[in-house]
Amino acid sequence: MPGAPGHDFHHRVSLRRVSHRHVSGRCALAVLTLSGLALATGCGGGGGGSAPPPPPPPPFTSVTQVRVSQLSTFSAGCEGVAANGILYVDAAVEPSLALNPLSPLNLIAAWQQDRWSNGGSQGLMLAASFDGGMTWKLTNAAFSRCTGGSTLSGGDYARASDPWLTVSPAGTVYALSLSFTGGILQPGSSSAMLVSSSTDGGMTWSMPQALIQDASGSFNDKGSITADPTNANYVYAVWDRLTGATGGPSYFAVTADGGSTWQTARSIYDPGPQNQTLGNQIVVLPTGVAVDIFTEIDNTGGASSALLRAISSNNHGAIWSAPATISSLTAVGVTDPHSGTPVRDGSGIASISVGPGGVIYVAWQDSRFSSGQRDGIAMAQSSDGGLHWSTPVEVNADPNVPAFTPTIHVRADGVIGVTYYDLRNDTSSTALFLTDCWLVTSSDGVNFRETHLSGPFDLSQAANAQGLFLGDYQALTATASAFVPFYVQTGPNAHFFSDAFISFPPASAAAAAAGAAASFAARPAPAGTTLTPEGRRRVMERIRLIRAQRRNQPG
């Protein structure tokens, strides 16, 4: 059952790394915070003494923010099994956000709460707002043992990950969870895609239904769920299912009766025995055509490559087209330039949205604009249902610094919004790894304005889950005239490691100019640009890392 705050020492202790710089692989200083009492302690394994705390990062210069995540209420050991790895109590990561079309002031949020270093979290937290995001009520569904999961509820799993939300035209909210016990494909392990629904705006949730459940022979990963905006009866879920040591087809489940029953999950695209898909997401066009967009990682013959691809269905998922290629994916990833610590960013996962007239927009992290030196934010679009795609353009405002983990959303009036992080305000200080969050907007896909959302904050304070981790994705939705970003940050306004924040940038694209740091035009890659040999090496290295992360660490 959900743990209430108690007197258990291990539950009440939260580890906050004041300095994340490493000497011989060991952290220099840690602080245990207990009921407001700070106790300095050196990390085990030597290292020649404790370093002094670094100076705080500069003050935040953000738009209005509201912290949605709160201190953890999970009791120690609520997962019910012995667990290896580091538990980052109070680390909120990987947010999802949905807006109720029947009540635009009703927002529903989800995130991973208390992230583990070796995959997943103790549970998914859910929250509902009925005043446009200014105040929130925390709730949860029985997706894992820490949030009430049991054999009877269908949620008897030690951990949960990859939250995803959607709302049907009838106002029913659906939440999807990757729930699992044990390591990927390890003896005794199990995994499932669980869905729960709410008919009261996210205040209460049904017992989860299992779309698929697997023992150790397969592992279900990185799911998303999409309500059909043209028909409230249909809701689609899609994910990749790791089958044995190499395979990873796209799996799909659909309900045709508003979630009362779900058709048996099945494979809808298999890239071959040495390959896998990742980051499957379905969008639905005004015609009712469903389009699944994903990353395909190919490892045939050991030569790693990645493509963004799209398949479509005009009969609610009964039959799917052959894949169309959107673009190659040539991300190199982000690393703390001071310590060399990698960032676990969104470099293997695209973000997708549909605009008026059924135009599909895709944004992703890519290094092609700098010949493989650093990642920027790429965007492409399709006006024919995903069959053909425009040449990718770069839409981050500052092309001279790494930009990562984009999220795209297109408002009903056609204005495009993209949020992302970048490192333009990082300094030469080895004590801090300064990061900012930004929103760029455009009414034509060519001319953009930039708004600063938050930062700079110290990314080195984030939980480390095979890299500094805010989430494989962030969230962005919109009212009729305003974007509503939902993202994770560390820093002086966050509890311990990281918190999930909603912010309120200027209401229109024109008004964004008042708070914009820059106005700029989207940039195609320079003519004749190709990756350098070093760039190609870094891209292949990143693809191999993404593949290894997906097969070694759940969620």
Explain what this protein looks like in three dimensions:
By secondary structure, this protein is mainly β. Helices cover 4% and strands 44% of the residues. The strands form 9 sheets. Strands 23-24-25-26-37 form a 5-stranded antiparallel sheet, with no helix packed on it. A 5-stranded antiparallel sheet has the order 27-28-29-30-36, with no helix packed on it. A 4-stranded antiparallel sheet has the order 4-35-34-33, with no helix packed on it. The N terminus is likely disordered.
List the helices and strands and how they pair.
Elements: H1 9-12, E1 14-23, E2 26-34, E3 37-41, E4 65-67, E5 87-99, E6 107-116, E7 121-129, E8 137-139, E9 159-167, E10 173-181, E11 190-198, E12 209-214, E13 218-227, E14 235-243, E15 250-255, E16 266-269, E17 276-284, E18 290-298, E19 305-313, E20 324-328, E21 334-335, E22 342-344, E23 351-354, E24 360-366, E25 376-382, E26 393-394, E27 403-410, E28 416-422, E29 434-442, E30 447-458, E31 463-464, E32 468-469, E33 475-478, E34 483-489, E35 499-503, E36 516-521, E37 523-524, H2 533-552
Parallel strand pairs: 22-32
Antiparallel strand pairs: 1-2, 2-3, 4-35, 5-6, 6-7, 7-8, 9-10, 10-11, 11-12, 13-14, 14-15, 15-16, 17-18, 18-19, 19-20, 21-22, 23-24, 24-25, 25-26, 26-37, 27-28, 28-29, 29-30, 30-36, 31-32, 33-34, 34-35
